[in-house]
Write a structure and sequence with these properties.
The protein has 371 residues and is mostly helical. It folds into 2 domains: 33-117, no CATH class; 131-370, MetI-like fold, CATH 1.10.3720. 70% of the residues lie in helices and 0% in strands. The chain is built from 16 helices and no strands. It has helices at residues 2-28, 34-45, 57-60, 88-98, 104-116, 130-165, 170-184, 187-198, 222-260, 263-270, 275-293, 295-305, 307-313, 319-329, 332-360, 366-370. Mean pLDDT is 75; it is low at 45-78. Its main location: membrane. This is Microcin C ABC transporter permease YejB. Residues 138-353 form the ABC transmembrane type-1 domain. It is a multi-pass membrane protein.
Length: 371
């Protein structure tokens, strides 16, 4: 079993390398790189970036130095059509600042070497290292991911078990209808509905509109801080949980139904064991395997997939919003750094899922399955 997990760990390296190759290659063909972003700012706001490249205000102090054409191309390998009025030295200095004076292959190999040492560089436009920026935004996304996943499992597993035991009853019918409706509602639409109903949109102003803490959070007592924290995360967590909750409940129900019909369950009941002992002492271990297998998808889906929309709607400054803003601004170090970290976390969580399989049922042997 150790050899299996060792192979999985070693496979992380080529997988991450492939992710980096694909993303780096695609970016080379996307117009509007960081150099164009700076030139567009100069064109639109005059001397905002005057002296950026170490020169004086005379280099880019007036927007009339910039042509009327739009910018095309990307990086240092293209012609900046709209910048034809700017001094050539200024453009070259910008390219050196962003590292685009080097060939793409050299830039990529340098990035790979730095990433091997977990050196993700510094944001182009925020004057802060990528790792510090990610660590700064991580608590928000972790809050949404962990609480949403925890609540989804705590509610879905007992509900799914009860639905399996009461299969075909009115309870099973009306809960299934509610679950299907919940699954059909997009997360962003449910988030807006929560805002309208409970955050002062049109009805009740019970919960805050934005942020994870109040302005006077530092002045509150320990209990006050905890209550304020939960007060702020209630609506975002509910909006993040709804789709995962529906999927997990039906998955748990179907898994238990499959196990309840097996012979060992009939034998356990024939021996006079209580229903609770049969369900949680015998069926639970086998039925939970498929639910545990879905844990990485649930966690990663909440942590990354839905974080952008939820964070934007509730004005939360997390990783999803960071990645979106970096893509819009063509902040390549942040883009590549967050993709690398997201990919690494996803791969590690997948390995942890296999380890949980073995913990729940030691009979599972992945090496024999591979053979």
């Amino acid at each position: 079993m150790g050899a299996y997990f060792l192979r999985r760990l070693l496979l992380i390296i080529p997988t991450l390398f492939g992710i980096m190759v694909i993303n780096f290659t695609l970016v080379q063909f996307v117009p509007g790189g960081p150099v164009e972003q700076v030139l567009a700012q100069i064109q639109g706001r005059g001397d905002v970036f005057a002296g950026f490249a170490g020169g004086g205000g005379d280099q880019a102090g007036s927007s009339d130095l910039v042509g009327e054409d739009f910018f095309v191309g990307s990086g240092g390998d293209s012609k900046y059509v709209g910048a034809r009025g700017l001094p050539k030295e200024f453009i070259e200095q910008l390219e050196r600042e962003f590292g685009f004076d080097k060939p793409p292959l050299e830039r990529f190999l340098g990035m790979v070497w730095n990433y091997m040492r977990f050196d993700f560089g510094e944001s182009y436009f925020r004057s802060i290292s990528v790792i510090d920026l990610v660590l700064e935004k991580m608590p928000v996304s972790i809050t949404l991911g962990l609480w949403s996943t925890l609540i989804a499992y705590l509610v879905s597993i007992p509900l799914g078990i009860r639905k399996a035991v009461n299969d075909g009853t009115p309870f099973d019918t009306w809960t299934s209808g509610a679950i299907i409706v919940a699954y059909a509602i997009p997360g962003f639409l449910f988030a807006i509905l929560l805002l309208v109903l409970f955050a002062g949109g049109s009805y009740w102003q019970i919960f805050p509109l934005r942020g994870l803490t109040s302005d006077n959070w530092s002045e509150l007592s320990l209990i006050g801080k905890v209550l304020d924290y939960f007060w702020h995360i209630t609506l975002p967590v509910l909006a993040s949980t709804i789709s995962a909750f529906a999927t997990l409940t039906l998955l748990t129900k179907n898994s238990f139904l499959d196990e309840i019909k097996k012979h060992y369950v009939m034998t356990a009941r024939a021996k006079g064991l209580s229903e609770g002992r049969v369900l949680y002492g015998h069926v639970f271990r086998n039925a939970m395997l498929i639910v545990i297998a879905g844990f990485p998808a649930v966690f990663i889906g909440v942590f990354f997939g839905g974080s952008l929309i939820i964070e934007t709607i509730f004005s939360l400054d997390g990783l999803g919003r960071l990645g979106f803003e970096a893509a819009v601004a063509r902040d390549y170090p942040v883009m590549f750094g967050t993709l690398f970290i997201f990919g690494l976390i996803g791969l590690v969580v997948g390995i942890l899922s296999d380890a949980m399989y073995v913990l729940v049922d030691p009979r599972i042997d992945f090496e024999k399955r591979e053979g």
